Amino acid sequence: MYVLGIETSCDETSVGIVDGEGRVRANVIATQIDIHARYGGIVPEVASRQHVLDIRPVCEQAIEVAGVDWGDIDVVAATYGPGLAGSLIVGLNFSKGLATALGVPLVGVNHMDGHVYGAWARTEDHGLEPFQDLVGEQPIMCLVVSGGHTELVLLEDHGQFRLVGETRDDAAGEAFDKAARILGLRYPGGPEIQRVADGAPDMEPLPRAWMRGSDDFSFSGIKTAVLNRARTLEIYPRTTTDYTVDPQIVAGLAKAFQDSVVDVLVTKTIGAAQRENCAGIVLVGGVAANGPLRETLVVKSPLPVAIPPFKLCTDNGAMIAMGGLVNYRNGRRDGWDLDVIPSLRIGTSLLA
Ligand code: KG4
Ligand code: ZN
Fold it and tell me: pLDDT tens digits, residue range 57-101?
């Protein structure tokens, strides 16, 4: 059995194919990062137009990489939300056409569920042990951290999620992108902050928003703290070509920011997982690519932690194919009735 998953919720056009055991046979990703980088954030209209150009070749390439024929595909799965409406429409309509042409069921996948199920996708190059240990044992606390979302989701059973906590303002990835912009670093900000923070000098810590008594998060305060500190240190406003700024100061502030975000995410996730008597923790979403976040969670957590490899952390089609496989097995055949569910997301980092 093969499930083909289509992801176009943001700025990645991606098609993945998984088999009935959740093994990833293809995961082709056409990223638009370079196109949006010049604007400092995602421009929704540009994103949807690019999806139109990329979706068909990416789909054909996935079939080729997987070494299967169109007739081998048993289910088509597609992200229907949350995300950018114009981008979602391209992928969802393409998948409706594809499923009709192939005469197979179409299954809708919530983008966030897809991120979670991406953790169970099996690839050749990553250790499956923590996943195998976790499969079948519930509940599992999932921290979903991306450019548009920061959510603590309790997986009570397969297909059964309970939202435990979420951000009340900025998503963690959005905070990374905005802090990077303040520091004069390129978009997307997460990898840039991690790069310059590596080996940076320690600086006076920035505050942590604990939101005590709640599992919610808040990251707009830390962004303002970075802005204020950058003004005090006279490194803001600046541009990438401003060579008068001491890179060590930028690096130190990037590190203080990253330390604060990582500390809050890790501490609150472990606290919530222990309180809910979880069997383990799963870390997913684009920000899960962050090295210090991964390392700190693994070191500090008394529970087993599962984190997918990088290509399954950021937006990708294989995670949607995995979500489609789970939904299909749970009896879902709802694709043709689906409409796009847009979130309030309007692109990640146009304003600091
Ligand atoms: O899941 P994703 O690919 O797309 C969304 O659904 O948003 O996440 C993208 C986000 C961006 O905000 C980006 O800055 C962040 O993930 N990100 C990182 C790292 N790599 C990507 N944040 C921190 N550290 C990283 N290494
Ligand atoms: Zn995502």
Answer: 999 999 999 999 999 999 999 999 888 999 999 999 999 999 999
Q: Which amino acid is at 230?
A: A
Q: Which of 262, 312, 314 to mutate to test the pocket of ligand 1 (most atoms within 8 A of CB)?
A: 314
User: pLDDT tens, 170-201?
Assistant: 999 999 999 999 999 988 899 999 999 999 99
Structural contact between residues 189 and 176, judged by C-beta atoms closer than 8 angstroms: yes
Q: CA–CA distance from 67 to each of 25, 62, 73 (Å)?
A: 8, 8, 11
Ligand 1 nearest-atom number relative to CA 173: 12
Residues with CB under 6 A from ligand 1: 10, 146-148, 173, 176-177, 188-191, 194, 285-287, 289-290, 314-315, 348
Q: Which residues surround ligand 2, an ion (CB under 5 A)?
A: 146, 315
CA distance 32 to 11: 6
Give the global pTM.
0.86
Residue 126 pLDDT more than 70? no
Atom 1 of ligand 1, residue of closest alpha carbon:
286
Q: Which fold has domain 133-306?
A: Nucleotidyltransferase; domain 5 (3.30.420)
CA distance 296 to 199: 16
Residue 147 reports pLDDT greater than 90? no
Strand 24-31 to strand 12-19: parallel, antiparallel, or no bridges (unpaired)?
A: antiparallel
Q: What residue spans define the domains of the chain? A: 2-126+310-344, 133-306
Which CATH code fits 2-126+310-344? Answer: 3.30.420.40
pLDDT tens, residue by residue, 295-304: 999 999 999 8
Mutate to test the pocket of ligand 1, among 146, 150, 296 (most ligand atoms within 8 A of CB): 146
